[in-house]
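User: histidine kinase, Breznakibacter xylanolyticus:
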Amino acid sequence: MHKLSVCVITFLLIHVAYGQGIFRFEHYNTQNGLSQNTVFSVHCDPKGFLWIGTMNGLNRFDGYDFKIYKSIGSQPNMITNNRVSRIWDDARGFIWMESYDGYYHFFNPKNETFNTLPRYSAFEEEQNSKGTCFLQYTPNEVWMGASNSGVYRLQYQEANDTYSITQFLSRGTNAISNNKVSLIHADSDNNLWIGTIRGINFLSKTDIENQNMNFQHLNVDIEFTGAVAENNTEIWFGTRQNGILCYNKQNHAFWFRNASNSHPALSMPVTHLVAKDNRFWVGTAGMGLVNVNPETNQWISVPFHDQTVLDLYADRHHQMWVTGNLFGITRVETATMQTHYYELTPKDNLYATDLERHYFYEDKDNRLWIGLHGAGLANYDRNTDAFVFYRNNGTDPNTLSSNIVHCITEDHNGNMWIGTGQNNGGLDKVIRTTPAIRHLIPDEKDKSQNGNLVRCIMEDNNQVRWVATKNGKIHLFRSKESNPFQTINLITTPNSSEQGNNVYAMLQDDRGFIWLGTKGEGIGISKNPVTQGTSYNQLSFEWFKHNDNDSTSLPSNNIYDIIQLSPGRFCIGTFGNGISLASRRMGGKMEFVNINTANSNLSSNLVRSILLAHDNQLWIATAFGINCIDIKSLDQAQFQFRTFFHSPDTPESLSYNDVVHIFEDNEQHLWFTTYGGGANRLNYKKDQPIRFIHYSSDQGLGNDIVMGILQDNNGYIWLSTENGISKIDLRNNQMELYNANNKLFFNSFSENTCLKTHNGTLLFGGSNGLVAIHPEMEQLQKATYRIELTNLFIANKEITVHSPNSPLKQNISYTDVLELNHHQNAFSIQFSSLGYEDNMVMKYAYKLDNFESDWNEVGNQNRAVYTNLPPGRYTFRVKASSGAGIWDTNERVLSIRILPPWYRTWWAYLMFLTILVIATYWVHRTLTQLNLYRHDLLLEKKVNQMKLQFFTNISHEIRTPLTLIIGPLEDIINKSNLPDAVGKQLRVIRKNARRMLMLTNQLLDFRKIQNNKMTLQVSEIDIKRFALDIFNSFEPLAAHKNIHYSFECNTDDPKVWADVSRLDIIIYNLLSNALKFTDSGKTVTLRIDETPDAVNIAVIDHGRGIAPELLPEIFTRYTILSTNDLSGTGIGLSLSYELAKLHGGTIEVTSEPGQGSTFTLCLKKGNQHLTNQPEITIIHDAIHQPHPLTIPDNEIVDTTNPLDEPQIRTALVVEDNPEILDYICQSLRPEFNCIKAVNGQEALPLARQYNPSIIITDVMMPVMDGIEMTRTLKESIETSHLPVVMLTAKNDVADQIQGVETGAEAYITKPFNVEYLKSVALNLVIQREKIAGYLKKHKAIEPGNLNISSKDENFLNHLIEFINQNYANDINIDQMAAHCCLSRTVFYNKVKSLTNLSPIEFLRQMKLKIAAQLLEKGYNVSEVAFRVGYNDVKYFSRQFKSFYGYTPSKHPTSGSSPSDED
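Assistant: Predicted structure for histidine kinase:
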C-alpha cells in the first residue's frame, strides 16, 4: 500500500486570477432569447447546433437565435416536463434528453417530433417509471433501461425515420428477470448484459441478430448496481450487498469477489467501477476507493478525503479524480497511488451549497475543467498543480454569469460553453486569451473616463514607452513590464498655473530631447536629453506657445503631430493654423516659420498628421484633403503644395477628405487613414497617374473611421478603428478583425495613437489603455464552418414542418429540395456558419442560380430575401467567411422549385388550346349564324312592315262596314216595338261592333305613332269632369265583378290641355286593365291630385300586381304580362304611354305582386310645353263631347242558374265571357235547362249538385281553365260519367288532342255554329239514353255494352261484383251507395245516368238474370227464389215473368229453349 501523500493547497496558495486562459465570458440569457436562465445541459450536435436544456424547455442555438421547444397545455408529442436535465445524441442524429421527472425523450430534429420513454400514458407501472441507463448498441439500435418497466429495444426504421420500440418485461415469452433495470452493458463481443435488482440477464450477439430474445437469467437473488467495467479478459459487475460479480470472457466462468475473499470494502455497495491501465478502480458507498490488480489479485485501499465515492473520473493524463460527500476533490496518480487533495469552494462560501456537484470536462487541448455548484469554474493547471478559478464578479460584466456551473461543452471550433444557473445564470461562451495580445492599463486605480484613455505613445532610446492619457498624465513603461514604473504629472506651463495638459504628440529628437505637443498648451521640450542614465522623475520641460505679437512664435497651441526633418529642424502640425517649421537659433530661442492657407495653397489649416517620405516628400494630412511638397521647396520658401481630394467622379481618387494618419510601409507605399472613408493606399509611379486603393468596411474593415496604421515584421498591415483592429494580408487583401467580441479588451482607439516598438511589438492606444500585439506569437487558427440553413420565412411568417400548408417535409436544416406553390414566391432564408465566432466579423455571400449570376456579398447579414420569383427551378447557394476574409469552400446548397399557377401548367396550356380551338369554331359559327339572323331579321322586318301595312289597310276597310253595321243597329234598337229577346241580341251585336271599332282605331293610332304621323288637337279640359265621365261608364262592370270602385279628386278645379280623344284612350285603357286584373272583393280607385306644375291621374288597384323584373317591359309594344286567361293584344299600355309622351307627360307605374299596381298619368299644367310643335294644334274655346268609346252598353248578362223545367235535360255551361255564356244558354233552350258558371272552379260543385246531362265549357278561363276542370271531373267517380263538350278559340290539332285526352267527348272551335253545338249536345245525350233504353229493353245491361269511360266501367263492375256476392241478402240502395263510397243522391244519379235505370230497377234486373242462370243449372223455382233473396215465390214468379215474358218454370234448362206458354 502506498502511503497517503496529501498536498493541501489552501486558497491563499491557489492562484485566482482573471485572464489566465480565459479572456472573458460572453453571456446569453432570456434577454437574448433563451427560454430560461438556468442551463442544466449543453450539447453540440453533428451539424453544429447547440442544444440547451433549461428549467423551461429545450433550446436550439445557431449563433444568432434560440429556437424553443417546450410543452404547452395539452400539446401532443412534446416532453413531459419542461425542465431538461441532460442532453445527448445517438448515432442516427436523434437528440436525447432526460427531463426532471426522469423520463427519457428522443427528438427527431428533421420532423421536429418528440417520443417519450417509458411511455407516459401507458400502464401505471410505466407512468411511475424513470429512465436509468442508455446504450448505443449499434448505429441503428439503442437499448434503454427503466426503473420500473423493464428494458426497451429501439430499432431504427429508415422508411419513416424513427425507431420501432419493443419492450421486455419480467412477464411474457421473452421476459427479463426483473423490471427494475440498473445497468445495460455491451461487452467487447457485442453480447448484452442487463442488470436488475433481481439478477443479471444475458443476451448473446447471435440471439440478437437472429431476433431470438431469449434472455438468460443469472444470479436472480443478487441486486446489481449500475457499476460495470471491462478489460481484455474480465467483466466486473457491482452489486448492492454481494461485492463484485466477475465474468471470465475466455472460459465463461462466473465468481464473486467479496469482503471474505478479496477486500473488506466489498461489504459495502459497489457504486463505481473503472478499468484503467489493466487495473480496476472500485468505488464504494461507505468504505472509500480500492485499486485492484486483477492479475496479482492485489487490492490497495486508496485514501481520499471521504469514505463514500460520489464520482470517479479518469482523465487523459492517467490521473484519477475522486469526489465524495465532503467538499473538495482528490487527485490520484495512477502510477504511484499518491493522492492530492484540493479545496475548491472558498470557506466563506461553504454555507451557500450542500454539495459541489462536480462536472468534469476535458477540452480538445486536454485541459481539465470542473464545474462547481457555487464555486464557479475550475481549470487544473498541470504545470503548477493548482486550480485556476473563474468566478462571478458583480462589478465586472466579463466574468462568469453565475458561480453555479451545471455543464460544460465545446462546439466544433473548440469554443467552450458553460451552462450556469439559479442566480443570474444562462449560457456563457468562453472567449480565450491569446499570447499574442496583451492589455496594458496605465492606471488600474483610476476609474475616471479619461484616466486610461491613451492619446499618444512614444518609445525613447532607453526602450521606455511613454503613454500619454487624456487626464494630462504620462505613464512610463519598460518594455517587458505590464505596469508603469513612473508617472509624469503636474506639467506646469510658463505663465500659467494650469495642470493636466493633454499630450497629443511626442518626439525624441536626434540629440535625445523629448518634445511634447499638447492640445491647448503648445509645445514642451525637455531641458535635458534623455539618456541611459537619465532619472525620469527629474525631467523638466521648457514650453513654447503662440504669441499674437510675435509672428515667429508657434502658430497655434493645438499640436497634433511633430516630426524631425533634419538635424535641428522640425515640422509641427497644428490643428487650426497649418504647419510650422521649427528650428533653434543661437541663444536657444526657437524660431517658427508658419505655413497656412493664408500664405500658401495648403488645403486646410486643420492638420492631423505629417510624414516625411523616403523620397524627401513631405505629406500633410488635413481635415480637408492631402498636401504634398518637396522638402527642397520649403528650404527655398516656396510653399506650393500638390493637393489630393476625394472626387465622386473619379473612383481612384481619395476615398474621403478628412484624413487622420499617414504611414509608409516596407514597400515604400503610402497609406492614408480617414475619418469615415476607411484606408487608402497610394499606388504611385513616375509618369503614371496617381491612384488610391481603398480599404473599407465593405471588404471587412472593422469600421470606416480608421485612427492609426502600422506594419509588423511579417508584412501585415494593422489598422486601428473605432470598432477594433483589422489586419490586412497584402498578398491576397484578406482581412481579419480583432475586437472586444474575440481577442481585444475594448473597441475604440485614439487618433494617431499607435507605435511599433524596437522589438516589433505593435502598440495601439484607445479608450481603456493599450493593446500590445506580438505578431510573432500570433497563431492563425482557421475555423471550420458548417454553414447551415436555420429558418424559412414565407410572407414574413416563420415556416416549420408543422405550419399549416407547410412546404417543408423536414426541418429546413435537413432539407435539400424545396417545392413552393406559386403564391409562396416571396420568401427569405436564414442561415448561420455555426462557427460561433463574432457575428459582426462573419461575412456571408449567397446567390440564386437561374435568377442571378453574381454572388451577393451581404456582410454579416444572415438572411437572404427574394420576392416575386417567377415559377421555375433554382439553386440557392450560401457560403461564409471569417474575419480573415477567406471564403469557406463548404457551400450550403438548396434546390428550389416554384410551381407555376394552375393556369401556367402544361395541362392548362392544353386546355387553353382546346378552348381556343372550340372558341374559334364557335365564333366562326356564331358569326355565320349572326349573318344569317341579320339577313332573316331584315327580311322579317320587311315582312312585318308589309303585314302591318296590310293590317292597317284592312283596318281602314273594316271601319266602313263597321260603320254600316253600327248605324242601322242604332236605328233598329231605337224602335220601341222590338221583342225583348231580339232587342237583347241586337244590343250584344252593337256592343261587340263598337269594341271591334275601338280595336281598329287603336291599331290605326298605333301605326300613326310608329310612323310619327300622329297629330293632337289639344284644348283645355276640366279633367275632373272628364275623368268622372269615363269612371262612371265602368261602374256596372265593377258592380258585376263585386269590386269596390271609387273616385277621388283632391283639387277643386283641375284643368289640363289635352286631346280629348287621345286622353280618353289613355284613361280608358288604364281603368279597363285595372278592372280586368282585379278579383272580386278587391278595390279599384281613380284619383286626381294636383301639384304646382302638374296634374296626376292615378288608377290604383289591389289586383294581382306585376313582378319587378317585368316592370321595365310594361310599356313595350306587344308585351303581354297576363296569363292566357286574361291576355290581350299587348298594344293598349304601349299606345297609352306613347300618347302620354305626345302630350308632354308620363305614365309611371309602381307594383308589388299580390298587392296591386298604381298607374299614374302625369300631365303638365298650361300649354307652354305644347307650343311650337308641328304635330300639335291648340284649340281655344272647344266644345267637348264624350268619345264614343265611353258610351257603354249598360246591359250586364245575368249568370244566375234558375231551373225552369227540372224535368227536361240539364246542361252546365262554363264560359268566362258573360255575353257568350248567355248566348249559348239561350241557344240551348228549350231542349236544355241551362246552369251557368264563369270558370272551372265555380262549375265543379254545380256538376256534383245538379248532375247535368252534359257539360259545355270554354278552354281558356280565369282561376281554372276548361282542361283542368275536365281532368278533375273525369278523375272523380261522382262526375266521371258526365259528357263534356269543349269550346275554344285554340284550333290547333295539338290543342284538340289535349282536350280529347283529358276525357272530353267533343271539341268545337270558335267561332262556332250554335245549331251545330245543339246537335252535338243532343246527340251525345240522346245516344246515351238510347243505348241505355235498348239495353234495358233487351235485358243486356253489361258494363262492356255501354259507351262509358273506363272509370265508369270500373264503377259498374264494382257494383255488379257486389250484387253477385250479396244477391241472396236483402240489399238496399244505402248499402250499395256505401259500398261504392258515394252518397245516396250521387249514387242514384250515376246509376240512372249510366243505365237509364234506377238503382232498385238495376238491382232487380241483376237478381233476375242470376235467377235465370240458376234455373238453367237445374234448380227448381222455390230454390232459386230463396237463393236470389225473394221470400215470396209468387212475387218472384211475377217479377220474373214481367222481365222475361214467361214464368220461371218455363225457363229452359241447359240445352233447351223456353216454352211459349205463360
